[in-house]
């Protein structure tokens, strides 16, 4: 953890932590800690896995010359509940004072590098201002998502009214810590037709499930299978950065999966699940038996059903290859995007600097209307129009016309003909659960897999998570919802893994998502379906605002641009179980032209 005050005691546990390559330089992380034997009940027999089965590391403790120590402030410089970035020579540290105690942690969120000092401190954790990830201030551990890694925790001592922080130089430069994980000790790994845990789908839910099992000491076989040809990658980046290459998007490098014995089967399609015999069959005929199963197949993009739908150069963005081809074809040419939701608008924004022209076709009156409401949607639409994007609203595509097989024109129901060399379709998605129709796993009328708070399906030992599930949303009276967001998939993958290990965890996270267009970010927390009013504070034209979505007397969601950290603040209040009343927000807007948010830290309303 980077602590180096006393002479290290003999260490029982040697740990090697394998780090993703991207954004991390070549530093290796040194970590040390103690592991207790864990028990896992697999196939009816308890097995104990001990610390010495973990991965060896060259130096479990940093030596004195690897450490840096400095006085960073006077004890009275920080009030309770305050955070400050302090310089330690080799890097910065986040210093936190909470309940009279000082804590020192990594200062950047490991997800996308947000400065945590601008985040929200509450209930013993700090929440990232950008995307809502939460870190325990006592341990540095990641407690809510997105992202995979935790923060380093540094040693603090008080001497003569001064606060000293001591840290390993490498930890300071690295700014992230991968939790200690077990490795696989199953003798059959890699070459047998049975696995202890099978995970169908290698998005955020599948990967977090596998990592959580290893973090919890599970060392039996784990197989992760995916339709993709790539190892798990950062899918939300696809539509925001269409040029990104697979290796830039990878969530973990190849060595990580090898080190921790997480087997990944790429381009592997499951065609049937036989729950009675606990067996899945793949398209190529390969059969695999499992003891526990996680279904996280995600969704399949909807396609156009109009005349000419088979012409070339019409895409849904599902893989890095799709995204890369769209950029290549759009360069200096005419691009049409069908659908003004998150994916469509992100693609349109990205293509404005590459394409000759960008047009957006949408059935609603304004972009994002159902999600963000009329006024916010209109303000965002204006930003796009200022960036040369042409909108065709309240219409849809009636025909795609080709020349020599390749797309040339998009014909709209309004009879308008739009020139197009490439077309991206972003009109929503359906759960990719067709392969479950013949199984006894329940699907609802729309094809979603209903689960309980523990991510269990109707079949014992079969769990489901991610975009393909409906689950009870705790803070909306356990209403059964589908929330196809990246952060939610992480949280559900973790809960599924905990319950595979009989830990009785329940999903309770507050939904959090974001979008980025023209270098501007919009953040959103909550679940706003069915909102009946929107209260806006700030300036919509300047795109510096916060919008509160209310239903009856209650705030059910919040969105903001250039108004950090209000979305994280609201998420933290909702996560604490406190309701935010509409009248509180109305008073805030009435009296607070300064943007003061102290009312939100509310000690009860």
Automatic annotation (TrEMBL):
Q: What is the lineage of its organism?
A: Eukaryota, Metazoa, Chordata, Craniata, Vertebrata
Q: What is this protein called?
A: Apoptosis-inducing factor 3
Where does this chain mainly localize? mitochondrion
Superkingdom is: Eukaryota
User: What one GO molecular function would you report for this record?
Assistant: metal ion binding
Q: Which PANTHER family match?
A: APOPTOSIS-INDUCING FACTOR 1, APOPTOSIS-INDUCING FACTOR 3
The GO annotation for biological process reads: execution phase of apoptosis
Its subcellular locations are: Mitochondrion
The protein's UniProt keywords, in alphabetical order, are:
2Fe-2S, Apoptosis, Electron transport, FAD, Flavoprotein, Iron, Iron-sulfur, Metal-binding, Mitochondrion, Oxidoreductase, Transport
Protein purpose: Induces apoptosis through a caspase dependent pathway. Reduces mitochondrial membrane potential.
The Rieske domain is annotated at 70-165
What Gene Ontology cellular component terms go with this record?
A: mitochondrion
Family, as annotated: Belongs to the FAD-dependent oxidoreductase family.
């Amino acid at each position: 953890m980077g602590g180096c005050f006393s002479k290290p005691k003999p260490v029982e546990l040697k740990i090697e932590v394998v780090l993703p390559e991207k954004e991390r330089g070549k530093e290796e992380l040194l970590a040390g800690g103690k592991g207790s034997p864990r028990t896992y009940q697999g196939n009816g027999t308890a097995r104990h896995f001990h610390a010495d089965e973990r991965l060896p590391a060259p130096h479990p403790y940093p030596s004195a010359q690897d450490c840096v120590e400095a006085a960073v402030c006077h004890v009275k410089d920080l009030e309770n509940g305050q955070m400050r970035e302090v310089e330690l020579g080799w890097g910065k540290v986040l210093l936190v004072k909470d309940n009279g105690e000082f804590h020192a942690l990594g200062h950047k969120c490991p997800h996308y590098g947000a400065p945590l000092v601008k985040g929200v401190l509450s209930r013993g954790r700090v929440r990232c201002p950008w995307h809502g990830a939460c870190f325990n201030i006592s341990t540095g551990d990641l407690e809510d998502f997105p992202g995979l890694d935790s923060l380093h925790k540094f040693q603090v001592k008080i001497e003569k009214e001064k606060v000293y922080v001591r840290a390993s130089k490498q930890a300071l430069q690295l700014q992230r810590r991968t939790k200690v994980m077990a490795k696989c000790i199953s003798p059959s790994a890699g070459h047998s037709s049975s696995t202890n845990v099978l995970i169908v789908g290698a998005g955020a839910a599948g990967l977090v499930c596998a990592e959580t099992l290893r973090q919890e000491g599970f060392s039996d076989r784990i197989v992760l299978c995916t339709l993709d040809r790539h190892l798990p990658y950062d899918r939300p980046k696809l539509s925001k950065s269409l040029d990104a290459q697979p290796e830039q998007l990878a969530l973990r490098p190849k060595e990580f999966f090898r080190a921790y014995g997480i087997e990944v089967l790429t381009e592997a399609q499951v065609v049937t699940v036989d729950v009675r015999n606990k067996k899945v069959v793949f398209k190529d005929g390969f059969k695999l038996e499992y003891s526990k199963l996680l279904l996280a197949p995600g969704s399949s993009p909807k396609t156009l059903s109009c005349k000419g739908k088979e012409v070339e150069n019409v895409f849904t963005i599902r893989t890095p290859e799709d995204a890369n081809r769209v950029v290549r074809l759009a360069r200096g040419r005419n691009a049409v995007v069908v659908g003004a939701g998150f994916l469509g608008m992100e693609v349109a924004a990205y293509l404005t600097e590459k394409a000759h022209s960008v047009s957006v076709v949408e059935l609603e009156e304004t972009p994002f209307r159902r999600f963000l409401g009329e006024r916010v949607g209109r303000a965002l639409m204006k930003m796009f129009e200022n960036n040369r994007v042409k909108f065709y609203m309240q219409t849809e595509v009636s025909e795609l016309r080709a020349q020599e097989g390749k797309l040339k024109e998009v014909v709209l129901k309004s009879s308008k003909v739009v020139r197009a060399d490439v077309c991206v379709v972003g009109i929503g998605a359906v759960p990719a659960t067709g392969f479950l129709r013949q199984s006894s796993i329940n699907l609802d009328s729309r094809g979603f897999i209903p689960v309980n708070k523990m991510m269990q399906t109707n079949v014992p030992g079969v769990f489901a998570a991610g975009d393909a599930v409906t689950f009870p949303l705790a803070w909306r009276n356990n209403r059964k919802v589908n929330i196809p967001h990246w952060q939610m998939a992480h949280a559900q993958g973790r809960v599924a893994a905990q319950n595979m290990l009989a830990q009785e965890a329940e999903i309770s996270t507050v939904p959090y998502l974001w979008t980025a267009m023209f270098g501007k970010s919009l953040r959103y927390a909550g679940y706003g379906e069915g909102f009946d009013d929107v209260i806006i504070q700030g300036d919509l034209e300047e795109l510096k605002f916060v919008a509160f979505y209310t239903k009856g007397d209650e705030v059910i969601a919040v969105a903001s641009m250039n108004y950090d950290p209000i979305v994280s603040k609201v998420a933290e209040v909702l996560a604490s179980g406190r309701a935010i009343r509409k009248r509180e927000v109305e008073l805030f807007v009435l009296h607070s032209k300064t943007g003061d948010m102290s009312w939100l830290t509310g000690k009860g309303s």
